[in-house]
Design a protein that fits this description.
Radius of gyration: 14 Å
Number of helices: 2
Helix content: 25-40%
Shape: globular
Largest sheet: 3 strands, antiparallel
Distance between the termini: 18 Å
Oligomer: single chain
CATH architecture: 3-Layer(aba) Sandwich
Number of strands: 3
Structural class: alpha+beta
Number of domains: 1
Order of helices and strands: HEHEE
CATH class: Alpha Beta
CATH topology: Aminopeptidase
Strand order of the largest sheet: 1-3-2
Length: 83
């Protein structure tokens, strides 16, 4: 999931994520997983606020313009409330 810069900060990412989680649970999915680059601090904060738990980190997963970035793996289980 991603939003163009001009649409960020309006709560659209939260709404998209919540609706996706709700739809997944309605069809019986017990686990929703995602990965996000650690440098994307707003997204990491959103996922944590929604109840996702960090399950692992792939260090130096990407090198872009000479800068390394970690990849954060997160999950939300069906017995966890959506934040």
């Amino acid at each position: 999931m991603g939003l163009r810069p001009e649409y960020r900060g309006r709560g659209l990412g939260r709404r998209l994520a919540v609706q996706t989680i709700v739809a997944a649970r309605q069809v019986g999915m017990e686990r929703v997983e995602l990965d996000v680059f650690a440098s994307n601090e707003p997204a990491v904060a959103l996922y944590r606020a929604l109840g996702f738990i960090t399950e692992g980190i792939k260090r130096r997963a990407r090198k872009l313009e000479g800068q390394y970035d970690d990849n954060v793996f997160m999950a939300l289980l069906d017995d966890q409330p959506i934040g």
